[in-house]
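stage 2 :: seqdesign
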């Protein structure tokens, strides 16, 4: 039996032409790809107690309870999933390979090194996404990987990315859910380079080699991700927005739009319809940059709501893969997963509850006054009860009740690590 507050919300939205039941059904069909690296500060399991800083990546903070093993990370992830409504996915970096204590080079990884992850995800009914790890490695110490001057080092990273695509395809085939394999590299210079062209020419050739073999798109989809700058690469990034957008358009790859990879005054939401005019699908990395790409926990804020509004308004949900990308080591990591994912879902639900048809009709009629008025009035419609109803139906805590569960988990599990 729906709550009295939800019944009131249903009627309120109906008066502006929005069916809350359709919105809830649509939300339930959208999986969020939740990044594994929030749980252990981008450490991975190639070496015990590693923190894979480098390549512009750095998790800050030392909150107690970090996952130290694959089993601990999976336990923490499952706890977060129990507090997040809906059925979702796990996004895995190659450095999270289950190597069983053996030393295996990244260009020699095979699906066997991720079979335990596949079995675990399959048992939970999760989909999986994948990423080559082109940072925090001796062959990345120069700050260059796929665009390195040394052909041997370039070849190593090409082989790693090829192996990652094969792993992604195997994951998709075994789970029966398409895997998105996303290529991101940190390559760049701290200070102004004399040659901007050469590294980009080498990167293009490397990418062509990585993607030379066609894979079944039912099993694997390839994405490429740009970067604005990073620590140690403040002045020049080889894989810029313009480079990767051009590459994605030319080769019809998925283009990854990361909310932290643009200038602070740029709005990612404004890019979505332009990019989808020319590529088949996009990958979103929903994050929160603060002054730079610092990957803060996602909020229920205007920039994130604008991203989801654009996806819904354009009818792009079927062509958009929504993932998260942040790592905050200053707060409880299970809470960080829970807060960020719930907020991403809240923003998407708010977009699904917008009276888009009425707004578009006003726009077509030239009634820009009515369009603005309705946009603003819609912001005060009773969104909260609809979100609470979704959580109730998906049997997860309503409101802030989830926080007590995290605190109990911290007391009983995390504090003992």
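stage 2 :: out
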């Amino acid at each position: 039996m729906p709550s009295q507050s939800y019944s009131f919300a249903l009627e309120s939205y109906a008066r502006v032409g929005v069916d809350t039941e359709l919105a809830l059904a649509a939300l339930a069909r959208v999986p969020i790809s939740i990044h594994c690296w929030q749980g252990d500060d981008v450490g991975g399991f190639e070496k015990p107690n590693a923190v894979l800083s480098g390549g512009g990546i750095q998790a800050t903070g030392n909150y107690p309870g970090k996952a130290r093993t694959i089993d601990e990370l999976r336990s923490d992830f499952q706890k977060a999933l129990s507090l997040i409504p809906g059925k979702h996915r796990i996004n895995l970096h190659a450095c999270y390979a289950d190597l069983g204590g053996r030393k295996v080079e990244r260009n020699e990884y095979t699906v066997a090194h991720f079979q335990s992850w596949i079995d675990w995800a399959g048992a939970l009914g999760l989909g999986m996404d994948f990423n080559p790890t082109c940072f925090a490695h001796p062959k990345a110490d120069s700050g260059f990987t796929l665009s390195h001057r040394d052909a041997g080092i370039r070849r190593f990273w090409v082989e790693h990315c090829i192996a990652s695509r094969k792993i992604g395809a195997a994951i998709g085939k075994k789970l029966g859910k398409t895997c998105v394999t996303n290529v991101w590299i940190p390559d760049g210079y701290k200070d102004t380079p004399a040659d901007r062209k050469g590294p980009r020419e080498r990167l293009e050739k490397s990418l062509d080699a990585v993607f030379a073999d066609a894979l079944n798109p039912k099993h694997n989809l390839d994405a490429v991700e740009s970067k604005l700058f990073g620590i140690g690469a403040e002045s020049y990034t080889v894989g810029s927005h313009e480079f990767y957008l051009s590459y994605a358009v030319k080769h019809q790859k998925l283009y990854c739009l990361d909310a932290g990879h643009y200038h602070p005054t740029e709005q990612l939401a404004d890019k979505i319809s332009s990019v989808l005019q020319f590529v088949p699908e996009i990958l979103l990395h929903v994050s929160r940059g603060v002054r730079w790409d610092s990957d803060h926990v996602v909020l229920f804020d205007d920039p994130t709501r604008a991203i989801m509004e654009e996806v819904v308004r354009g009818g792009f949900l079927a062509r958009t893969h929504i993932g998260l990308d942040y790592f905050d080591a200053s707060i409880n990591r299970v809470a960080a997963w829970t807060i960020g994912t719930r907020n991403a879902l809240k923003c998407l639900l708010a977009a699904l509850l917008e009276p888009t048809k009425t707004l578009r009709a006003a726009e077509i009629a030239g009634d820009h006054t009515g369009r603005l008025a309705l946009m603003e009035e819609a912001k005060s419609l009773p969104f909260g009860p609809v979100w609470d109803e979704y959580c109730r139906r998906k049997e997860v805590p309503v409101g802030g009740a989830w926080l007590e569960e995290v605190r109990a988990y911290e007391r009983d599990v995390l504090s003992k690590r």
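stage 3 :: structure notes
- The mean pLDDT is 96.
- The first strand starts at residue 33 and ends at 35.
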